[in-house]
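Researcher: Here's the sequence for the chain we discussed earlier.
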Amino acid sequence: MSNPILADQKDRDRIVRDLDVNLFADAGAGSGKTKAMVDRICSLVDRGEVITSIVAITFTEKAAAELRDRLRNHISEQLHSVAKDSELHQLRSEALNMLDSAPIGTIHSFAGRLLRENPIEAGVPPLLSISDDLASQIAFQRRWDTIVSYLDSDSNAHAALEALLALGVSLEHLETITRKLDGSWDRLTRG
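Model: Thanks. This is the structure I predict for it:
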């Protein structure tokens, strides 16, 4: 029994064949996006592209890890299908060795990598670190605890806090405002 021709087969073929254009693949779960990406990346490697110069962006870290694993398996299988002294063997072997350095991940991890590799050009501190949601929440809580401690220990700040509390502003209100400001720090200007 032969495999049926898929309605989008032309698009699938284009992903593997049209290597000189950027493509965006949007399809449902289980439709073959990861396989298409693996095939495309392997075609680029076979053409001589260095795997660390190929960007593959997924929506989740889990999908990125799966893509990396599937690439590793596919390149390994392909590596054994060619003569050891061939150019293809060398290209695939190099790709396999550099796979863990390849920019395969989420848009956030890719943007973070660009910022870390080009901090001066991006106008960010050279030792920039990017936090996930949990780390950001923990960092905010530490900053908030420092603010509360300051409000309690500095007499002028304590007097201002007492006035706000007398007006019906609670510490929870101040924390909510502080979270909003913290979440929009990039929009704040210093005058």
